[in-house]
Design a protein that fits this description.
Number of strands: 29
Largest sheet: 29 strands, parallel
Structural class: mainly beta
Radius of gyration: 24 Å
Pfam families: Glyco_hydro_28
Subcellular location: Secreted, Cell wall
GO molecular function: polygalacturonase activity
Bound molecules: 2-acetamido-2-deoxy-beta-D-glucopyranose
Low-confidence stretches: 12-23
Keywords: Cell wall, Cell wall biogenesis/degradation, Glycosidase, Hydrolase, Secreted, Signal
Mean pLDDT: 92
CATH superfamily of the domain at 223-403: Single-stranded right-handed beta-helix, Pectin lyase-like
Number of helices: 2
Protein name: Exopolygalacturonase
């Protein structure tokens, strides 16, 4: 054998060894190469973090952290930026299973992505929050002061982010929480939790500008989408919601640190069997003046929804509220148009604004709702109620004008 063919065999040997180790493609950081194992009982957070840290430090236009097919146990973990590459992609093909030991969670998140410009999360994988055993420990629906369970996926301080094609299952608290983000788009998201799971909001956001949520299927125990303080330029399109509490602006006006909310469009959505359809809720006794303005709800299908259109500025789910002071949140320029379907309760449209800050510029376009409940005769006629609101009709409504 000549030295050339020996060199060739050595080369082939190293080639095979490299491919087997899985470190074949540059710019791809497979968590399995950092010690992650396909085991639901193991905490793979240290291995995931090692892969992330290397990927985040790697320069270039694009790097990827890959979670391959399989089931990976995962304790709470924060993936910190900023990263060197222009775009860091977290691709999840497998299923991530959260720890069921609540003592392990020191912050209010399970998987958090923090301070990254140029971020992508995709891959068809599943984030299983394993909330079933945690839900009995959530006292927040009953008590004003309560300990929060961890949200499943947190997006904090992200700029230019795309989240697509992932599933969140049985979160302990919210499925996804978007905070302090700029230009973030979520598409083809699937969210699943039972209708009685407490505070499992689908996608919650706050303090963010430029949020798009499109073509997604959300069924959960609380709001499908909830819009918090400081949200501007939100675009929601093609969402199917149910079970759940509907699409909700708020609740707002509870805390003294809250900011304004503006420029929200919700279009081409279907709500099925939800407790609310389109809801704006602000607390009474709010400690600070804020403004909510320029909201458009259009092309909405309601199927057997309890409160189809609901503006509630006297929101207080606890017995402790005294109604001493009306909400200080001022609502301006709201359009409800092209809303059709069925209402499970007789109160299909309810617009209750603040006594001290009446709503201005509320417009009702074409609204056509029929009753899907069981009351008969006159009792089955839908109603619309409004108070402290200046309302303009720019279309045809059934039920007719507010009384
Ligand atoms: C959100 O959608 C609007 C168009 O409706 C688009 O101009 C904008 O770039 C989108 N934002 C992101 C982050 O994709
Ligand atoms: C509306 O959303 C549905 C999915 O819910 C989608 O199939 C349809 O193409 C959308 N229509 C428009 C006009 O965007």
């Amino acid at each position: 054998m000549g030295s050339k063919s020996i060199m060739f065999m050595v080369y082939v040997f190293f080639l095979i060894a490299t491919v087997q180790a899985g470190s074949s493609r540059p710019g791809v950081f497979n968590v399995k190469n950092y010690g992650a194992v396909n085991n639901a009982a193991k905490d793979n957070a240290p291995a995931f973090l090692k892969a992330w840290t290397e990927a985040c430090a790697a320069p270039g236009a694009y790097v990827k952290v890959l979670v391959p097919k399989g089931t990976f146990g995962l304790g709470p973990v924060i993936f910190n930026g900023p990263c060197k590459a222009k775009m860091i992609h977290f691709e999840v093909k497998g299923t991530l299973k959260a720890s069921t030991d609540l003592n392990k969670f020191k912050t209010d998140g399970w998987v958090a992505f923090y301070e990254i410009t140029g971020f992508k999360l995709s891959g068809g994988g599943v984030f299983d929050g394993q909330g079933t055993s945690a839900w009995p420990y959530n006292k927040c629906p009953l008590k004003k002061h309560c300990k929060l369970l961890p949200h499943s996926i947190r997006f904090d301080k992200l700029t230019n982010a795309r989240i697509s094609g992932i599933t969140s299952l049985n979160s302990k608290m919210f499925h996804m929480n978007i905070n302090l983000c700029k230009d973030i788009a979520l598409d083809s998201i699937t969210i699943i939790a039972p209708d009685l799971s407490p505070n499992t909001d689908g996608i919650h956001m706050g303090n963010s500008v430029g949020v798009n949520i499109t073509n997604s299927n959300i069924g959960t125990g609380d709001d499908c989408i909830s819009v918090g303080s400081g949200t501007h330029k939100l675009y929601v399109k093609g969402i199917t919601c149910g079970p759940g509490h509907g699409l909700s602006i708020g609740s707002l006006g509870r805390y003294d640190w809250e900011e304004d909310v503006s420029d929200i469009t919700v279009t081409n959505c279907t709500l099925k069997g939800t407790t609310n359809g389109l809801r704006i809720k602000t607390w009474e006794e709010s400690p600070k003046e804020t403004k909510v303005s320029n909201l458009v709800f259009t092309n909405i299908k309601l199927i057997n929804v309890l409160n189809g259109v609901l503006v509630d500025q006297e929101y207080c789910p606890f017995v402790s509220c005294s109604k001493k002071a009306p909400s200080k949140v001022k609502l301006t320029n709201v359009l409800f148009d092209k809303i059709s379907g069925t209402s499970a309760s007789k109160e299909a449209i309810k617009i209750i604004c603040s006594k001290s800050r009446p709503c201005e510029g509320v417009k009702l376009g074409d609204i056509h709702l029929t009753y899907s409940g069981t009351a008969v005769g006159k009792d089955g006629v839908l109603t619309s109620t409004c108070s402290n609101a200046h309302i303009t009709s720019i279309g045809k409504q059934t039920p007719g004008a507010c009384k």
